[in-house]
Amino acid sequence: MSAAAIPVEHIKTITMSIYRYDPTVDKKPYMQDIVVEIPTDKDIMVLDALHLAKNQEPSLSYRRSCREGVCGSDGMNINGKNGLACVTPLSEVLKRGKITLRPMPGLPVVRDLIVDMKQFFDQLEKVKPYLITKSDSPDMERKQTPEEREELDGLYECILCGCCSTSCPSFWWNPDKFLGPAALLQSWRFIADSRDEATEERLDDLEDAFSLYRCHGIMNCVSVCPKGLNPTEAISNIRNKLLTREKA
Amino acid sequence: MLVNEIINAKDLPVMEFDGIIVGGGGAGMRASLQLAESGLNTAVISKVFPTRSHTVSAQGGITCAIQSDDPDDDWRWHMFDTVKGSDYIGDQEAIEYMCSEGPKAVFELEHMGLPFSRTEEGRIYQRPFGGQSKDYGKGGQATRTCAAADRTGHSLLHTLYQANLKAGTNFLNEWFAVDLVLNSDKAVVGVIAFKIETGEIYYIKSKATVLATGGAGRIYASTTNALINSGDGIGMALRAGMPVQDIEMWQFHPTGIHGAGTLVTEGCRGEGGYLLNKDGERFMERYAPNAKDLASRDVVARSMALEILEGRGCGPNADHIFLRLDHLGPEVVHKRLPGITELSKTFAGVDPAVQPIPVVPTCHYMMGGIPTNINGQVISVENGEDKIIDGLYAAGEVACVSVHGGNRLGGNSLLDLVVFGRAAGLYIEESMKQGVELKNASHDDIDKALERLNKLNASTEGDQVAVLKEKMQQNMQNNFGVFRRGDLMEKGIDELAKTREEVDSIFLQDKSATFNTARIEALEMQNLFEVAEATAITANERKESRGAHARDDFTERDDDNWLKHSIYYADTKEVSKRDVNYRPKTVQAFQPMVRSY
Fold it and tell me: Which residue in the set B52, B123, B197 is minimally distant from A65, CB to CB?
């Protein structure tokens, strides 16, 4: 989208206060105000506004891909709350003509709005986020009833954007030991799958003081998830599974 | 650190793998899975974290005769539909291979954990899609598209990523591949790539390089494609002297959300939705009396464009069409189409269970691409003869194998990805066992592949990307859209020619080594431009209407002259013809017929 194509009477200016840091040239991070012209006759997304800002400041850096909320690239902190820039309408977050954008908290900043997601993905890999089967595969599909499949709704839709884990105080404190809401949601996604044959191992792997039990039910993860998923519920489902297993 | 100087091959660090895959979408990760599982040291080079690839946006499903909905379904019927859908320039040997191998590839995905929706019998749920028939077009609408709600691409991509983690594939995530390295025999022996986070440049050496870089919908101003779909593989191939095939064939998806361009799956119409003009008329009944709203995409897109052109569009500017779903009831809409519900609310402000969705035909898919055989081996055409390029493979949207010909059927792209990603992997695995001998690249060879990146990094003046990109996108949108005309296309070609020099010498102001997205966008712009120019010149050469290529000045299909693939080389900018394969191995070839729905 280009500002130039919009008739003058339909333009207003907004101020985007954006976290800037390029370790190549900057000694320390700073907030830069970039004034952009946006249309008044239609709503645009935060990501669209970022494109307009980048046209003025080509060095401004952020991740983006699908621009429709399914790839999980553009998680960022918008006015203090994590969300996806591409599905956040500007009208919902603009306050007195201003919006503040920062990188997702708790992870090292690579540059501007881009964080180093290594810890996030390392934790994901620890839960063995793939189907484990021990029996032979049939020639056709493995059967699963619609009810069994329904158990995966609210779990398989995760886009790995990182909004949840980087808004979780427990993850901020122990990003290397507490797996975080995103990884634990994935763990439950496979435990809950009627086709998976590794439930006991998966539960064994979570049975320590940190991996799972550092969740204190703060529920920031639920309030920020752009897909409306509920990692806290997944975590409590795993807890219940661990508890009932001990009784058995 | 800044990256603003010329780097030479002799100073370049080298990484080596048995096989490298450029692109971490569905095709790339299916190929890498095959290689990694066979024990080869395999690396995926992806400019984004793999689950950010555009496969994630595929919605409706993967079409395949797995005989779940209909126990009598037959892959040959699927083949017939695909040949007809292609307007008879799809290669029949490749289509036969895709449709017959398909069930195996789909069941493999299920075994990896793909969360398909299910039938009461516990089998994979299938829904009707456009252009599908039973009994070779004689038995009415088929129900052949396997679905995970309306998030099939997301499910497929995540499942493949998971399977690759399990198999131990090396991922070079957020690495950008710049250009192919060719040895003195013109065989491909790897790529020049850099790590985006640090700017470090490497020669990544390999005896098998698979291009799986996806499409290039961003050559148009309005597209369903992700921002990353910049035709990087096409750019790399054209610069290295390889051809592209049928690149003029661009699919306009009937239902992109008006204004935003985001995709609304054909599955909406598969589930019973239909299109309305401003008079509330189900106009597809006029254009396609039998298949109606489930005619082929080219047919539906043209019908919609005509309704709008003739003043029967909806809205204050009469510039869109309504897609109606509310009659299906909230149960079906929310259960079968949850993603569409979400997208419609976000980008159109409507709940499709209550109100119609405003839609327009929107650039969606590149049927053309780098020509390959069914093993994924890239082919060049010399003096009318096919010649295999050693060391180079392509699969998925970047490739033209060709299973889609002039028009792709919905649900066939995900099948194409997994079948031919797998096929390329299988072939490479086998050839590595036999032993592959390719000459090493010399420093001169590597320096040649470094030229483009060096020029950009050392640039001190020139144009900025944003301006050039917008000019190109508007040009393509206005002159190479749903309907095409010789005089407008020539104007468009001239405009491109005038911009060529500027695109080749873009000014990169930001020389930072650290996660430099300005550098990426400049390199992507150059790739997009290669695709745009190839599209423009080839579209003007194909003097007929076939599949998605509809000309106002040549309105008929011309089988005498154009039952052919087009072949385009960037160095000469010339278009030649290549025979379409009519030699399937196990069935009789389907001969061209009048194509009606």
Answer: B52
Contact call for residues B301 and B291 (beta carbons, < 8 A): no
In whole angstroms, how far apart are CA B439 and each of A96, B11, B182, B268, B449? 64, 20, 10, 52, 16
Per-residue DSSP letter, B347 = H
A57 touches chain B (CB under 8 A): no
Among A25, A63, A146, select the one facing B512 at the smallest CB separation.
Answer: A25
Q: Count the residues in chain A.
A: 248
Alpha helices in B398-549 (DSSP H): 412-434, 443-457, 465-479, 486-504, 517-541
E strand intervals along B317-461: 321-324, 357-366, 370-371, 377-382, 385-394, 399-400
Is the confidence at residue A247, as pLDDT, over 60?
no
Helix (H, G, I), strand (E, B) or coil at B490: helix
Residues of chain B in contact with residue A54, where contact means CB-CB under 8 angstroms, are: 466, 517
**Whole-angstrom distance, CA of residue A162 vs CA of residue A124:** 11
| Separation CA B163–CA B169 (nearest Å) | 9
pLDDT in tens, B416-432: 999 999 999 999 999 99
Structure tokens at B313: 């569009």
- Rounded CA-CA distance B46/A178 in Å is 28
Residues of chain A with Cβ-Cβ distance to B515 below 8 Å are 61, 110-112, 114
Tell me where in chain A the CATH 3.10.20.30 domain(s) lie. Answer: 3-115
Q: CA-to-CA distance for B588 and A232, rounded, in angstroms?
A: 57
Chain B residue numbers touching A66 (CB-CB < 8 A) = 52, 54, 56-57, 226-227
Distance from the Cα of A247 to chain B's closest Cα (Å) equals 30
Please say if B52 is a catalytic residue: no
Q: Which residues of A touch B342 (CB under 8 A)?
A: 69
Query: What pLDDT is recorded for position A5?
Result: 55
Nearest to A129 among B123, B162, B521 (CB): B162
A5: nearest CA in chain B? B470
Interface check B192 vs A, CB under 8 A: no
H helices of chain A, where? 46-56, 90-93, 118-126, 146-150, 169-173, 180-191, 199-206, 220-224, 231-247
Whether the predicted pLDDT of B554 surpasses 80: yes
| Residue range(s) of every CATH 1.10.1060.10 domain in chain A | 118-244
pLDDT computed for residue A9 by the predictor: 75
Whether B115 and A159 lie within 8 Å, measured CB to CB: no
Report domain A3-115's class. Answer: alpha beta
Q: Do A22 and B514 touch (CB under 8 A)?
A: yes
Min Cα–Cα distance to chain B from A97, Å? 22
- Asked if B465 has any chain A CB less than 8 Å from its own CB, the reply is yes
Strand duo B42-46 + B170-173: pairing = parallel
- What residues contact residue B273 under an 8 Å CB cut-off, 6+ apart? B293, B323, B324, B325, B328
B516 with A160: Cβ contact below 8 A:
no
CATH topology assigned to domain A118-244: Fumarate Reductase Iron-sulfur Protein; Chain B, domain 2 (1.10.1060)
Q: What is the pLDDT of residues B24-55, one digit of tens each?
A: 999 999 999 999 999 999 999 999 999 999 99
Greatest distance between any 2 Cα atoms in chain B:
69
Cβ-defined contact of B51 to A160 (cutoff 8 Å): yes
pLDDT bracket for residue B205 (50, 70, 90): very high
Q: Which residue of B has its CA nearest to A89?
A: B346
Burial string for B319-357 (b: 16+ CB within 10 Å, else e) reads ebbbbbbbebeeeebbebbebbbbbbebbbebbbbeebb
Give the pLDDT confidence score for residue B587 in this predicted structure: 98
Q: Is the ipTM of this complex over 0.90?
A: yes
